[in-house]
Amino acid sequence: MTAAAFPQAIRRVRALGHEGLADFLIDDGRIAAVLPAGGAPADLPTLADGEGRLMLQPALVEAHIHFDKTLWGAPWRPNSSGPTRNHRIANEQAVLKDFDMPLAERAAPLIEHCVARGSLYFRSHVDVQPAFGIARIEEMLALRERYAHLVDMQLVAFPQAGLLTAPGTAELMEHALALGLEGGGGIDPAGIDRDPVRHLEAVFELAARFGRGVDIHLHDGGELGRFEVERIADMTEAHGLAGQVVISHAYALGAFAPADLHPLADRLARLGISVMSCAPSHFMAPPLAMLRSRGVNVCSGSDNVRDTWSPHGNGDMLDRARLIAMRFGWSQDEQLADAFDIVSHGGAKALGLGGRYGLQAGCEANLLLLPAQNIAEAVVACPQDRTVIRRGRVVARGGVLVTR
Amino acid sequence: MTAAAFPQAIRRVRALGHEGLADFLIDDGRIAAVLPAGGAPADLPTLADGEGRLMLQPALVEAHIHFDKTLWGAPWRPNSSGPTRNHRIANEQAVLKDFDMPLAERAAPLIEHCVARGSLYFRSHVDVQPAFGIARIEEMLALRERYAHLVDMQLVAFPQAGLLTAPGTAELMEHALALGLEGGGGIDPAGIDRDPVRHLEAVFELAARFGRGVDIHLHDGGELGRFEVERIADMTEAHGLAGQVVISHAYALGAFAPADLHPLADRLARLGISVMSCAPSHFMAPPLAMLRSRGVNVCSGSDNVRDTWSPHGNGDMLDRARLIAMRFGWSQDEQLADAFDIVSHGGAKALGLGGRYGLQAGCEANLLLLPAQNIAEAVVACPQDRTVIRRGRVVARGGVLVTR
After folding, report:
1. Among A13, A335, B49, B316, which has the minimal tally of Cβ within 10 Å of its Cβ?
2. pLDDT, tens digit, for every residue of A291-331?
3. Do the Cβ atoms of B231 and B196 come closer than 8 Å?
4. Contact check, Cβ <8 Å, A326/B312
5. pLDDT tens by residue, B272-293
6. Taken in order A288, A292, A298, A300, is the CA torsion positive or negative?
7. Which chain B residue is nearest to residue A385, measuring alpha carbons?
8. A261 CA to chain B: closest CA distance, Å?
9. B residues 298-337 near A, CB within 8 Å?
10. In Å, how far is A327's CA from the nearest CA of chain B?
11. Helix (H) or strand (E) holding A271
12. Contact A331 B79 (CB under 8 A)
């Protein structure tokens, strides 16, 4: 499905920065103009009549998900993982190695569900581990191709079981990037690979060689995790990867008084290193308000969605904004707007979407319409009745995917 | 609306403790029998055809809400409260004193929303403070009367601004219980009233005199809060109120290693003192799993729902079960069932519903039907498509209230 090539109108929506209701002119899948309601010519085809509903920033951004792990499309499977990260890695290998439903059948319904909830831009981590071989990577590439008409998806090569310690992983990572994955991943340089500097050197060297960005899962806590954040900043600088690095989770930053982290936050901001947080309620979470106040870009994601790691997660980034706000006790309208910014513009910046993303003329007409008086209400109420527009076509209505 | 007086059948539902699908015979608003699917006579009127959906414990129990505070039915109002509890109390008085929408218009749509989400039993705290006078109490009694056809609601007289420190409150509390409110409330005996023992003596003396239970808001933290929990146990014993006392919030219990609290938990269990927790993600929360493992009854509630205290809250006790599970990292099916038990049987026990509440013959036919394979999936997925049955009548379908 290519973009609709003829001019159309979205009529009578509330939109940020516009007094009263607005009309949007859409042409060739992009926003052509924004006018006061009634300004769009009456003879233009109507793409959607907002009837006063809220038009949100161009769709939601899912900046951290693991489509390849999900059991979304499978019958309910009780969680069987042990208490530690290493248990969970081994458990996942055992469960998924011979799972009788292929990746595409598990993940495709989740992608469609996410779209119906209003996410159109994704970053999915793809497990790169010898236990799964190249097949996993090829399956995700095929799935991305299958859904190219519906979503923009970046893939990150993710060495879940370790990069140095799981023999054969480094070669697979290289293979994955050669196949076109956009990002080089890493995981707990100390906690899993037991050699923080060699791990980070391997990740950054590989990414720089392929001209790709970096996205590192960092669960290591306390002083250890903070040290690793500092070393990630060093390597970002050394490899000239400013603006292309994301630290995912960064639980460690939740272990300190926020003010103690100001110098580190300022450095992350200078280097354009984004922090991705799901704002977990049962772990420490990085101090997102402080990070943003120092200029650090913050994005978020669903992470595990009903997989062998966790039965939770629902792929709804508006619900994620609500969870973020609740996690930090954000109650003022400005704070609720901050939570929304994290799941929209923050994600767009982390994914490098640049000028494509916005409500101004020239941006992609990837839009979300829902019944709310303003962003604050949208975040706390999470209405399920959502109309999702991608490149000038309605792809979901009433929270349900429009099938062709 | 009285109970439907003629026999009816609910057909083909999944129900706990029953192999395969089951039929329920309903008569005079109660469960008359549970049979294997196909067992209900074909000529009985069909109250609902489950088509394999899950039938949950008799509806959800909202054990802690403040209907009188909500702005649910009003246009969006940005949160304007200051950072402390005393700021919030003063802010609420200022906002609500002359609010141009009466309590009933704000609260009625929230009650209906809660019912459509599957809650049929409620405990609502009613502010008793001279700033609002007797009018607030009378309005809540009138609202309860208006919805008596739809919900069972207990009211607790709640001295929000202090019992000893706000002159005239003690007399209003007495007036409220004389008018028929079921519970005597208290709040932060040290933190607000600055005299923990006199506060608790006043609360317990009043409740005992009227033969009512006690429900105390306890936000006081750390050692202070633990001391107050101990004194509440003392007074429960002294006044013979075992089984009739709830401690709401009890944040203090989250400040200690759970094992250090075993003796105190055992005492709460012996005295039948329930702990109500919303499992807040930005505060300390009592260790619910430990409390339950020691035999303490745990219930939950929505607490503030879009009021001057907080814009959050949605009156959905199944979503609350999900938040509880996420808050404590509960991932196993048994743990997800625990979260559900808290918002159902735990609430029923705290509210003293006794043998009325259950899926066995003789219990009230207050039931919730939704599309889920099992309780674990119901908790993580929180389906919005809910059929709610009260005393043999369908009161909500597809998550929407059935209007007469």
Report:
1. B49
2. 999 999 999 999 999 999 999 999 999 999 999 999 999 99
3. yes
4. yes
5. 999 999 999 999 999 999 999 9
6. positive
7. B384
8. 20
9. 306, 310-314, 322-323, 325-329, 331-333, 336
10. 5
11. none
12. yes
Distance (Å) from the C-alpha of residue B9 to the closest C-alpha of chain A?
A: 28
The label of the residue with tokens 């200022």 reads B94
Please write the tens of the pLDDT for every residue from B15-57.
987 889 999 999 999 999 999 999 999 999 999 999 999 998 7
d(CA A238, CA B257): 44
Who's near A260: CB < 8 A, 6+ residues apart?
none
How far is residue A145 CA from its own chain's centroid?
18
Interface check for B89 against chain A (CB to CB < 8 A): the answer is no
Cβ-Cβ contacts under 8 Å, A382 against chain B = 314
Q: Rounded to an integer, what distance in angstroms lies between the CA atom of residue B362 and that of residue A347?
A: 54
* Amino acid in the structure at residue B374: N
Tokens representing residue B264 in the block: 């105190």
DSSP calls for A43-55: TS-EEEE-TTPEE
Probe site for chain A from B14, B71, B72, B79 (most A CB atoms < 10 A) = B79
Maximum distance among all Cα pairs of chain B, rounded to whole angstroms: 65
Which tokens is B377 given?
């999936």
Q: What is the pLDDT of residues B64-123, one digit of tens each?
A: 999 999 999 899 999 998 888 889 999 999 999 889 999 999 999 999 999 999 999 999
C-alpha–C-alpha distance, residues B269 and B253, integer Å:
15
Q: Given pLDDT bands bounded at 50, 70 and 90, which one contains residue B404? A: low
Across A177-189, average pLDDT: 96
Asked if A331 lies within 8 A of B314 by C-beta distance, the reply is no
CA distance B312 to chain A (A): 6
Q: Which residue bears the tokens 């990630």?
A: A232
Map tokens 């990070």 to a residue: A291
Comparing CB atoms, the residue among A76, A282, A323 nearest residue B328 is A282
Q: What angle do CA B151, B157, B160 make, to 5 degrees?
A: 120
**B53 part of contact set with chain A, CB < 8 Å:** no
A120: nearest Cα among A151, A162, A155, A86 = A151
Q: What is the ipTM of this complex?
A: 0.96
